[in-house]
Amino acid sequence: MNANKKKFIYSFSVLSGTIIGVGLFSLPYIVIKSGILVTLGYFIFLGIIAIIIHRFFAEVAFKTPNFLRLPGFAKIHLGPTGEKTAIFSTTLGLFGAILAYLIVGSEFLKSLLMPILGGSDIIYVFCYFFLGALFVYFGIKSISKIEFFGIIIFFFILIIVFFQSKSAIDFNNLFSTKASNFFFPYGPILFSLWGASLIPEIEEMIGENKDLLKKVISFSIIVPILIYLLFILIVVGICGSQTTESALAGLSNFLGNGTMNALLLFGIFATFTSFVTLGLTLKKIFWYDMGIRKNVSWLITCLVPLVLFLIGLRSFINIIGLVGGVMVGIDAVLILLMYKKVNGKSILIYPLAIVFIIGIIYEIIYFIK
Question: What domains, with CATH codes, occur in the chain?
């Protein structure tokens, strides 16, 4: 395997493996609430936008040769106000994402092991948390080598589940819902397609090959969309109106133990890899961009989501909707402004900024209601 192929495989697997996270498990419920056609429309529209924004950020990263992340880039290109805004949106967004992974990942771990080992719910939360914190401490190399195989496992588990349960899948379930919540999918789907915080990490892995990075970005967003659609087909096709917010809970009423355990393993791996890679990114923001000592950065990164969980923030769809619609939206606007600064004019900058600003306003109003 030549160097470029190796770089592509590892960087693609890290970025796509991070994108395929807890947002996946909200998507079947979104179809139930908003309809399959509306959901498909959002995937096409936001998928194209996500590729554009990720590529814009890659261009910013190439033209800012430092070991920095979004807040550091914003300080250089947008000044102190840009830096403070980026610190606010990025840190809160990553804390929210890590919290969502902790909520759902520990739930899956409990569902898989409690029938065998017993114990209380909180034991599985702490087991998931401590293992994730350990990986965040040791860094990206400790997980990047298994991320590629994780993507393959994701796909094959879904294929196996599809063929084992195809007799139970009713395609009419996909079209039996009405598009009564047109804007509801915006935040969760944007969240499920977002991996811009990893772009500087991927740029470090790839080096100076811009074309390879663009290819990695496109594949890392398109492949998750295809996996998401297969997952939606399976869950909604089987569960119909009984689809639950976390998807797998509803499936347990229809599938056998073996198939259900395979899906739980899939869920644990999907959330865990994202927990680790985003945790590492947040740690480096505190360390590189804010000048906080490495070990203190690690403690802040890991402990804050745990504390938020323990005080009762446990509704993951509300969390990812807010993070996707507001925090990701702010990050996207900052990326657009930085891209304008380093690359001059682009007819896409202002229309895209308007889309994200409208999304921010909607999600804030929805959350307040």
Answer: 3-368 (1.20.1740.10)
pLDDT, one tens digit for every residue, the chain (369 residues):
677 788 888 888 888 877 887 788 889 999 988 889 999 999 999 999 999 999 999 999 888 867 677 888 898 999 999 999 998 998 999 899 999 999 999 999 998 999 888 888 899 999 999 999 998 998 765 565 566 666 677 778 778 878 877 788 888 888 866 666 788 899 999 999 998 878 888 888 887 788 898 999 999 999 999 989 988 998 999 888 888 877 877 777 777 778 788 888 878 887 887 788 889 889 988 888 788 999 999 999 999 999 999 998 888 888 999 999 999 999 999 999 999 988 877 788 999 999 999 999 988 887 777
Q: Could you tell me the two tokens for 53?
A: 């924004």
Q: What is the DSSP string of 219-282?
A: HHHHHHHHHHHHHHHHHHHHHGGG--TTSHHHHTTTS-HHHHHHHHHHHHHHHHHHHHHHHHHH
Phi, psi of 170 (to 5 degrees): -115, 110
| Residue spans of alpha helices (H) in the chain | 3-19, 27-34, 36-62, 70-117, 121-138, 141-165, 186-192, 199-206, 210-239, 248-251, 257-284, 294-310, 316-322, 328-343, 349-368
How many residues make up the chain in this entry?
369
**Encoded tokens for 347:** 């007819």
* Side-chain-side CA neighbours of residue 24 (13 Å): 34
Q: How far is CA 49 from CA 82, 110, 113, 197, in A?
A: 22, 36, 39, 16
pTM of the predicted model as reported, rounded to 2 decimal places: 0.86
**Burial state string for 109-142 with b = 16 or more CB within 10 A and e = fewer than 16:** bbbbbeeeeeeeeebbbeebbeebbebbbeebee
The answer to whether 359 and 321 have CB atoms below 8 angstroms apart is no
Q: Within 10 A of 195 (CB to CB), how many other CB atoms are there?
A: 27
Place of tokens 């070990």: 295
